[in-house]
Every structure is written in structure tokens, then in C-alpha cells.
């Protein structure tokens, strides 16, 4: 589904992402982990089009998308949630998701205009999936932190992505909110059959969601494998898990 080949990003003389290769299969949940400053955020910016690669390729179903504009990549089916917050705080929860659904269908968003029944159904379906149906008429700004993150997932789902990029989905969350988010993502991923690439520091989240894990250190891939292989990899324990666990 998504493949990166020798992906490299340099800022002046500093190479933040250095010759990274990996392939994420259809329906796979891949976690990207690594120490602070390893290059995870830069890698996500390269996948979503927010940065142009210095060298290398990003392929979606074999088609090169590396260096294309974020809206182009989004239109091809890659959505990104978190770190790039898309919430309109003064809109209701419902309207936030409606904007995303309508944008995906490239319809004009008339705020007081006729609401297509099919679109409304889609929005309600998404809100039910992320457990926000009861809060649909609330202003987004009044939601609790954990619910705002759930709304971000809902907005990302509005564009019916095939690949969902999640930047640290549980950053800043309480242990309770973190467990809720893991459950929510497990449910959404299974229901939609999504392909997911996520970066995360919390190992409970990583081991609770990922089918495979890629470990990045100093811009390069240190290891790749199943959660079990990564947990037992001596290089990974030395570079990362030793300090994180
Ligand atoms: N625009 C930029 N210009 C110069 N250097 C940059 C830029 N963006 C990132 N870097 C550098 O690239 C390196 C990798 O940063 P990046 O944010 O990708 O790491 P990260 O793995 O996401 O870290 P964290 O886990 O702390 O979020 C860092 O040393 C950072 O200072």
C-alpha cells in the first residue's frame, strides 16, 4: 500500500531522515518509534506532503506521491490526524465532521444550506464510531481533551482515507484517556480496514495497536519487525526501549 524508498531529508548540512526504506501492507498498522529527535516527525511530514524529500520516493499503490502538495496526497487517500489540528473550535462537533465529509466530496459547504441526507448519515455514522454522537451539537471548543482528540480522528475519517497517519495519538493524555484512545483506534481500524502509520512514545499504545514496528535512530532504520521481535531486539533495547520502559 505505502512504500518509502531511500527517503532522505536534509536541512542545510543536517540530515534528519537518512535513506529510510519500508513497506506497509494493505490493512497493516505500522508504528514508527525512536528516541527524541530520531526523525519521526520529519518522516511524517514527508509522507503527508508537508515537506519535500531531498532524495528518495514515497509510493502509494506504486504511484509516486513524494513531494506532492498535502491536499493532493490527501485526495489520493492519505489522511493525517494530530499535530496538524483541523478542528474549528467555534463549530459544533457535527459541523466539524460535515466540513470534512463535504470537502472530500468536493461540495460547496453552505453553512445554512440544504444538508444532503446521505452526507448527514455519513457524519452520524462516524460520530457513533468515535463515541461522540451524543456530543454532536456541542461546540468543539467545549469538549474535554480526550474527546477533542476523538474528534480529530472523526475529521480524518471524513475524507474516507485508505491510509491514516497518526502523530502521537495519545500525547498529553491521562492514563484513562490513553486506554480509551487505544480502544477507539482498535475499533475504527478494524471497522474500516484501514492501513495506519503511527508514531508514538507510549509503548502500551504501540504494543496495543501495531502489527509491525519500525525503529528509527538518528534518521535511519535501526530495526523492523513484529512487536515480539522488537521487544527482544538487543539493539532496540540499548537504543530505545531500555530508556522508555
Ligand atoms: N525545519 C528544520 N530545520 C532544521 N532542523 C530540523 C527541522 N525539523 C527538524 N529538524 C531536526 O531534525 C531532527 C529530527 O527531528 P524530528 O522532529 O523529526 O524528530 P522526532 O523523532 O519527531 O522527535 P520527537 O520524538 O522529539 O518528536 C532534530 O534534530 C531536529 O532538530
Automatic annotation (TrEMBL):
<dbReference type="GO" id="GO:0005524">
    <property type="term" value="F:ATP binding"/>
</dbReference>
<dbReference type="Pfam" id="PF00005">
    <property type="entry name" value="ABC_tran"/>
</dbReference>
<dbReference type="Pfam" id="PF12399">
    <property type="entry name" value="BCA_ABC_TP_C"/>
</dbReference>
<feature type="domain" description="ABC transporter">
    <location>
        <begin position="2"/>
        <end position="243"/>
    </location>
</feature>
<keyword id="KW-0067">ATP-binding</keyword>
<protein>
    <submittedName>
        <fullName>Branched-chain amino acid transport system ATP-binding protein</fullName>
    </submittedName>
</protein>
<keyword id="KW-0547">Nucleotide-binding</keyword>
<dbReference type="InterPro" id="IPR003593">
    <property type="entry name" value="AAA+_ATPase"/>
</dbReference>
<dbReference type="InterPro" id="IPR017871">
    <property type="entry name" value="ABC_transporter-like_CS"/>
</dbReference>
<keyword id="KW-0813">Transport</keyword>
<dbReference type="InterPro" id="IPR051120">
    <property type="entry name" value="ABC_AA/LPS_Transport"/>
</dbReference>
<dbReference type="InterPro" id="IPR003439">
    <property type="entry name" value="ABC_transporter-like_ATP-bd"/>
</dbReference>
<dbReference type="InterPro" id="IPR032823">
    <property type="entry name" value="BCA_ABC_TP_C"/>
</dbReference>
<dbReference type="InterPro" id="IPR027417">
    <property type="entry name" value="P-loop_NTPase"/>
</dbReference>
